From TrEMBL:
The keyword ATP-binding applies. The gene is gatC. The keyword ATP-binding applies. InterPro entries: Asp/Glu-ADT_sf_sub_c, GatC. Belongs to the GatC family. Keywords: ATP-binding, Ligase, Nucleotide-binding, Protein biosynthesis. Heterotrimer of A, B and C subunits. This is Aspartyl/glutamyl-tRNA(Asn/Gln) amidotransferase subunit C. Its EC number is 6.3.5.-.
Length: 95
């Protein structure tokens, strides 16, 4: 597969980019070099290699849920700037 200047112009148009002729030639060369390098992957012998979605095994790193006592209402409201009837009191945001 090869990238042409027309392909670069099309992508630039989709991205709403204005490129000079020099930039179009430069990007065409760079993209072709990237594709040529990626084609080296086709040289690898992958027979007998199982497909994977991750290189390393993925495990759950979450801790187990443990039931424990909750914070009391008094402790929760201890640092509140203002409280009323056991609830945080905040300035009104609507009239």
């Amino acid at each position: 597969m090869s990238i042409t200047v027309k392909d670069v112009e099309h992508v630039a148009n989709l991205a709403r980019l204005e490129l000079s002729e020099q930039e179009k030639e430069q990007f065409t060369g760079q993209l072709n070099a990237i594709l040529k390098y990626a084609e080296k992957l086709n040289e690898l012998d992958t027979d007998g290699v199982d497909p994977t979605s991750h290189v390393l095994p993925v495990t759950n790193v979450m801790r187990d849920d443990v039931v424990r006592d909750s914070v009391t209402l008094e402790t929760a409201l201890r640092n509140a700037p203002d409280e009323e009837d056991g609830q945080f009191k905040v300035p009104a945001v609507l009239e």
